Amino acid sequence: MNISNSTSGHMSSNTEQIIRQIVAEELSWEQELPVDHFSEHLDSMQKLSLLVAIEDHFEISFDEDDDAEINTLQDLVSRIHHKENLKQHID
């Protein structure tokens, strides 16, 4: 996957753009990604594939609690940032 991971001041919008690219590449998603409750537009296999690709890209790991809390695109962005912050404190 050829997606750069930027740490600039626009982290949230960069993360959202990366998610959109991952969705397009991993799920062959051609329409606009819904912002509200996007997870309702994905079947269980698509959601699993998306989460695994995001884990691989950002070098983070989701757990069952995360899955239950991620419903919107912003939820996903926030959870990624939370996981990245935890990772930085551990490293």
Structure notes:
The protein has a single domain (13-90), classed as Orthogonal Bundle (Non-ribosomal Peptide Synthetase Peptidyl Carrier Protein, Chain A), CATH 1.10.1200. The chain has four helices and no strands. The protein is mainly α. Helices cover 62% and strands 0% of the residues. The two termini are 24 Å apart.
Write the topology of this structure.
Elements: H1 11-27, H2 44-58, H3 64-69, H4 73-90
Identify the notable features of this structure and list them briefly.
91 residues, 4 helices, mainly alpha, Non-ribosomal Peptide Synthetase Peptidyl Carrier Protein, Chain A, single chain
Alpha-carbon distance between the termini? 24 Å
Under the CATH scheme, the architecture is: Orthogonal Bundle
Protein structure class: mainly alpha
CATH class membership:
Mainly Alpha
> What integer is the average pLDDT?
84
Number of helices: 4
The total domain count is 1
How much of the sequence is in beta strands?
under 5%
CATH H-level superfamily title: ACP-like
In short:
This protein has 91 residues and is an all-alpha fold.
